[in-house]
Design a protein that fits this description.
Rossmann fold, seven-stranded parallel β-sheet, 40% helix, 374 residues, elongated, four-stranded antiparallel β-sheet, 13 helices, Alpha-Beta Plaits, 2 domains
Length: 374
């Protein structure tokens, strides 16, 4: 990250009150509304003098200034490009001589040390941009709802059904549905294009979309096999690949971007349940997670996987309806004596996406009440 510190002196003949009013009420909003400029920014803060204590003096320079602006950019290249943007030069730069004595301002660039947030913010992901595939139903809906509840902006990638659209609307302004079918290469590319059109960064990518079928060995259909491999394994890789620039743009010192793949307990144990394609693809997701972590962690992107056990979903409902008494038998076999809940899967995603999980990469986390691990 590169930080520009500007110690500002007001134009001669302008009172301090007039300067502060224009700087805070006119220029600040004008700068923030210039999207071509702000897309390069990490943060922009104006510091006004407090009482009789000149604020510039606290930055190691003369106190003979009226305010300080601190602009943090992703890197030096982003800073240079921001000030060369045509819209900045046309809309913002002409405003500055109205209230600033540019010749007597002082500016300098600093490479800041990483500042650790207070422990109270250890699990905060407020303001982060999250993409959740298959995020309108089942486990994906639990993840989307949790991320929105804790202040993330959530882009759900799912098929454009009325049910999915209604779910996104229920979550409100922090959530939007991008209707795409990830079973096709074209659908993955279209989803990536739609995400890029909505945001200039992706802090959290949750590859959750999945398909499940079960059949005896001799009855397995090759079309079902191919579709499950396309959704469960091909889509996570190529969506991650397509969004790499946006993930790198979100990465900051001490706060990497996160890829969180949803695997399955089916990839950990030998019980097939005749879900051959599903188990194979989820095992592939686990190995893909480790390989991507090996390659991307050094670039500021951590990659982890969650292996859920049994949670309420359309898939588990089908199991339980097909076999009377199966739900009760399953709960009895789980050491925690219950199915998973939204807080279990959502909380694990929040942990991985927050500063608390910043040092974890390449891990497969079973979230299954001890069914496999205990």
């Amino acid at each position: 990250m590169t930080t520009l510190i500007v110690c500002i002196k007001r134009r001669p003949g302008l009172s301090r009150a007039e300067f502060l009013r224009h700087w805070g009420e006119s220029h600040g909003p004008l700068l923030r509304s210039c999207a071509d400029f702000t897309r390069h920014l990490v943060s922009y803060v104006q510091y006004h003098p407090i009482g009789e204590e000149p604020v510039a003096a606290q930055f190691g320079v003369s106190g003979d200034y009226d305010g300080v602006a601190v602009l943090s950019f992703r890197n030096a290249e982003a800073m240079a490009q921001a000030f060369a943007e045509p819209r900045y030069l046309a809309d913002v730069a002409p405003d500055e001589p109205h209230f600033v004595d540019i010749a007597n301002c002082l500016s300098f660039v600093a490479q800041p040390n990483v500042v650790k947030a207070p422990t109270a913010d250890l699990f905060s992901i407020a303001g982060k941009v999250a993409v959740v595939t298959g995020g309108a139903r089942g486990v994906g809906a639990m993840i989307s709802r949790t991320l929105a509840d804790v202040g993330a902006d959530v882009l759900i990638v799912a098929r454009g059904s009325a049910e999915n659209e209604a779910f996104a609307k229920v979550l409100g302004g922090r959530c939007a549905l991008l209707a795409h079918d990830l079973a096709t290469v074209e659908g993955v590319r279209a989803a990536a294009d739609a995400i890029r059109s909505r945001t200039d960064r992706v802090d959290i990518l949750v590859n959750n979309a999945g398909s499940f079928t079960a059949a005896p060995v001799e009855a397995l259909d090759d079309d079902q096999w191919d579709r499950e491999f396309a959704i469960n394994l091909r889509a996570p890789f190529f969506l991650t690949q397509s969004l790499l620039p946006h993930l790198k743009a979100a990465s900051k010192p001490g706060d990497p971007a996160r890829v969180i793949n949803i695997g399955s307990i089916a990839a950990l144990w030998a019980k097939s349940s005749m879900a051959y394609a599903y188990g194979a693809t989820k095992a592939g997701v686990h190995q893909l997670t480790r390989m991507l972590a090996s390659d991307l962690t050094g670039s500021g992107i951590t990659v982890n996987a969650i292996a859920p056990g049994f949670f309420p979903s359309d898939m588990t409902a089908g199991f339980f309806e097909a076999v009377p008494g199966l739900r009760e038998q399953m709960i009895e076999s789980i050491p925690a004596k219950r199915l998973g809940e939204a807080e279990d899967i959502g909380g694990t995603v929040v942990f991985l996406a927050s500063r608390a999980g910043a040092y974890l990469s390449g891990a497969i986390l079973p979230v299954e009440g001890g069914l496999w691990s205990a």
